């Protein structure tokens, strides 16, 4: 191929250029048609080199994967800290507040988050946690309505009539100023009714 | 010691609550006057003379008026006192109702005296006067006429937004009630259902016991001599000030030479209808019904 190109170049230098233009074009055509055969040895060498570099690359990648896997394994081996109100992130805290979670249910969420090794925000999104929370809310509402369980009954505020009756029976005067006023008003109201 | 009336601390607590409650509920003076309970025994309210503008033909001359100030002031000069010696004190304390009733009676007595003092002073100092048609408030037909004419006395003054009042004695209520049950459909229905309505034609009506408006001297205090029998008052609320420095207080004490306890309840009082507001209070003279 190199010889043919040389001949074309020589022809143009000889000054026969214009007359030989047609020959030159023919020569060019033939030069394009003839397949160029590479040197087999050199080609093999290049292929070998490519393969070697590819193997090196793969080796490097495999090494990286190994390191990553080892790191991940180490992480799993380390005992993970269980989430608590004291070590919650701002994100977790705001998620708990936004979801309007009852304080009694925090431990269930923290347990799930610890078990799954996920943050509290993610645990809140888990369907199992959602179902548990819904059930607990319902239980609480029912307990409140029926006053069952270990709920301690709140202090009952005595009515004005109760205070008056107690005073009339036992001469007892309430401690708070508000209740004393109630007592006086109750007496005056009773007087007006008579 | 338990928290019963056997303990003085609780007796005092109950007495104070009763006094506060009754004075707040029963005092007409509280509703129609400004009430001042701070420690001041004199409240100064000076005012300047009113400037007068003239219109005249072009001359360029003028005669300057002298600007004067007058110190209008309220002075706390009186005290209301009720005192009792209860010799069989333990017996009185044996029943709550007996003790409470005694306390209430004292508080009502104080309230009635304060009201009498304030209402007579207010009537005595009123800047406007009005005489009712014959028969006064007791004649049903007079009611719209009297209210219309009284409203005309204070109409146009800026202070009217503070509310209007009319104080009558209980003997005059009959004519007013008859008029109320006869006044339009819904008002009559309301009056028939609920009884006497304490507001009529935009005026809040307060009823005192008979003989609050007096002719004579109040409890021998010559400065408190009035000629208010047969008079009533109407006007704009909060034009006068009733002062009772530190409120009404009481003391329960043992008495030398006597068994039992002495209880005294007292309060300092002062009253002033401010000079510039005198015309917003009307002294009503009740005209007797014509004899047939």
Describe this structure in words.
The complex is a heterodimer of chains A (194) and B (292). The termini of chain A are far apart. The longest helix of chain A is centred in the first third of the chain and has 38 residues, at 40-77. With 194 residues, chain A is mainly α. Chain A has helices spanning 2-13, 21-33, 40-77, 90-98, 106-116, 120-125, 127-146, 160-170, 177-193. Chain A has 9 helices and no strands. In chain A, helix 1 packs antiparallel against helix 2 and helix 8 (160-170) crosses helix 9 (177-193). The model of chain A is unreliable at 11-18 (pLDDT under 50). Chain A folds into 4 domains: 2-33, no CATH class; 40-78; 85-146; 160-193, no CATH class. Helix content of chain A is 71%, strand content 0%. By secondary structure, chain B is α+β, with helices and mostly antiparallel strands. Chain B has one domain (8-285): Major capsid protein gp5 fold, CATH 3.30.2400. Chain B is built from 7 helices and 15 strands. Chain B has helices at 8-26, 28-32, 89-93, 96-125, 142-154, 173-180, 185-194; strands spanning 34-36, 42-48, 69-75, 78-86, 128-131, 164-169, 199-200, 203-208, 215-217, 225-227, 231-236, 240-243, 249-254, 261-273, 281-285. In chain B, the strands form 4 sheets. Chain B has a 6-stranded mixed β-sheet, with helices on both faces. In chain B, strands 1, 4, 12, 13 and 14 form a 5-stranded mixed β-sheet that branches. A two-stranded antiparallel sheet of chain B has the order 2-3. In chain B, strand 7 and strand 8 (203-208) form a beta hairpin. In chain B, helix 1 (8-26) packs parallel to helix 4 (96-125). Chain B is globular and about 85 Å long. The termini of chain B are far apart. The model of chain B has no long low-confidence stretch (mean pLDDT 89). The chains are: A mainly alpha (194), B alpha+beta (292). Chains A and B meet through helix 8 and helix 9 of A and helix 1 and helix 4 of B.
């Amino acid at each position: 191929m190199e010889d043919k190109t040389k001949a074309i170049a020589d022809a143009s230098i000889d000054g026969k250029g214009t007359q030989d233009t047609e020959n030159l074009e023919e020569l060019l055509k033939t030069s394009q048609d003839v397949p160029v055969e590479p040197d087999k040895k050199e080609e093999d060498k290049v292929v070998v080199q490519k393969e070697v570099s590819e193997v090196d690359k793969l080796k490097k990648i495999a090494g990286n994967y190994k390191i990553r896997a080892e790191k991940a394994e180490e992480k799993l081996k380390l005992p993970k800290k269980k989430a608590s109100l004291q070590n919650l992130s701002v994100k977790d805290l705001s998620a708990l507040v936004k979801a309007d979670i009852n304080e009694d249910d925090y431990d269930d969420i923290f347990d799930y988050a610890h078990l799954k090794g996920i943050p509290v925000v993610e645990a809140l999104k888990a369907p199992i946690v959602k179902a548990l929370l819904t059930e607990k809310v319902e239980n609480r509402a029912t307990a409140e309505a029926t006053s069952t369980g270990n709920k301690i009954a709140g202090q009952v505020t005595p009515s004005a009539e109760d205070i008056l009756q107690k005073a009339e029976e036992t001469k007892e005067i309430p401690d708070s100023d508000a209740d004393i006023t109630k007592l006086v008003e109750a007496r005056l109201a009773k007087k007006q009714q008579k | 010691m338990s928290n019963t009336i056997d303990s003085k601390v609780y007796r005092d607590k109950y007495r104070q609550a009763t006094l506060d409650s009754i004075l707040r509920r029963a005092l007409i003076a509280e509703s129609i006057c400004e009430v001042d309970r701070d420690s001041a025994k004199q409240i100064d309210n000076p005012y300047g003379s009113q400037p007068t503008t003239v219109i005249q033909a072009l001359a360029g001359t003028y005669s300057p008026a002298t600007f004067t100030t007058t110190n209008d002031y309220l002075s706390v000069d009186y005290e209301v006192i009720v005192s009792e010696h209860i010799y069989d004190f333990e017996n009185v304390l044996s029943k709550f109702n007996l003790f409470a009733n005694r306390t209430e009676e004292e508080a009502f007595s104080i309230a009635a005296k304060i009201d009498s003092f304030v209402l007579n002073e207010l009537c005595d100092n009123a800047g406007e006067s009005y005489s009712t048609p014959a028969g006064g408030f007791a004649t049903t037909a007079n009611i719209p006429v009297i209210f219309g004419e009284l409203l005309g006395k204070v109409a146009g003054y800026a202070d009217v937004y503070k509310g209007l009042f009319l104080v009558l004695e209980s003997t005059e209520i009959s004519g007013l009630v008859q008029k109320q049950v006869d006044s339009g459909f819904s008002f009559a229905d309301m009056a028939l259902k609920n009884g006497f309505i304490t507001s009529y034609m935009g005026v809040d009506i307060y009823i005192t016991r008979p003989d609050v408006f007096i002719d004579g001297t109040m409890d021998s205090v010559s400065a408190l001599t009035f000629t208010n029998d047969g008079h009533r008052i109407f006007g704009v609320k909060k034009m006068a000030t009733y002062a009772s420095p530190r409120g009404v207080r009481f003391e329960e004490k043992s008495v030398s030479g006597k068994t039992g306890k002495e209880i005294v309840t007292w309060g300092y009082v002062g009253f002033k209808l401010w000079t510039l507001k005198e015309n917003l209070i009307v002294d009503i003279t009740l005209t007797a019904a014509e004899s047939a």
